[in-house]
Amino acid sequence: MDWTLQLIVLGDAAIAMVLGGAIGFERELKNRPAGFRTHMLVAGAAALLVGLGQLVITDHRLDGEGLTLDPLRLVEAVIAGVSFIGAGTIFGHRGSQVVAGITTAASILMVAVIGVMAGFRYHLLALAATVLTLLVLAAVGSIERRMMAKVKDNGSDATKR
């Protein structure tokens, strides 16, 4: 097998890990249950699984073995694996009336998808999805906190009347 193809897959995984790390860093700064390393590893693993599938498809040593491979099945496997990690971030914080960790679970799903995009070599799409995810986590979170503060302020004004 050609080493250059393997290096390309490794490069795709590195790109995925950098992009996943950017999202993980944001989660780490907010002291969330899954942070920098987790997000990097999930994105890298997703890219490697997709890349490995592509390598297996082109590996002529396996010709005549009756091997069939559907790249979308690899994506399904990534999503199934990420579901367990996401569930762990949610269940890890269920001790009170409030369910915590859902946004982090969603960010883990996003970095898995970003890893899949990088694995399929849709690097621009992966970068754009990373930027959009960071915007949602940072900007939308800030807007949401301001709106909730206004609702609480209006509620306390109503009780004073």
TrEMBL record:
<keyword id="KW-0472">Membrane</keyword>
<feature type="domain" description="MgtC/SapB/SrpB/YhiD N-terminal">
    <location>
        <begin position="15"/>
        <end position="145"/>
    </location>
</feature>
<feature type="transmembrane region" description="Helical">
    <location>
        <begin position="98"/>
        <end position="118"/>
    </location>
</feature>
<keyword id="KW-0812">Transmembrane</keyword>
<protein>
    <recommendedName>
        <fullName>Protein MgtC</fullName>
    </recommendedName>
</protein>
<keyword id="KW-0997">Cell inner membrane</keyword>
<feature type="transmembrane region" description="Helical">
    <location>
        <begin position="38"/>
        <end position="57"/>
    </location>
</feature>
<dbReference type="Pfam" id="PF02308">
    <property type="entry name" value="MgtC"/>
</dbReference>
<dbReference type="InterPro" id="IPR003416">
    <property type="entry name" value="MgtC/SapB/SrpB/YhiD_fam"/>
</dbReference>
<keyword id="KW-1133">Transmembrane helix</keyword>
<dbReference type="InterPro" id="IPR049177">
    <property type="entry name" value="MgtC_SapB_SrpB_YhiD_N"/>
</dbReference>
<feature type="transmembrane region" description="Helical">
    <location>
        <begin position="6"/>
        <end position="26"/>
    </location>
</feature>
<feature type="transmembrane region" description="Helical">
    <location>
        <begin position="72"/>
        <end position="91"/>
    </location>
</feature>
<comment type="similarity">
    <text>Belongs to the MgtC/SapB family.</text>
</comment>
<keyword id="KW-1003">Cell membrane</keyword>
<feature type="transmembrane region" description="Helical">
    <location>
        <begin position="124"/>
        <end position="143"/>
    </location>
</feature>
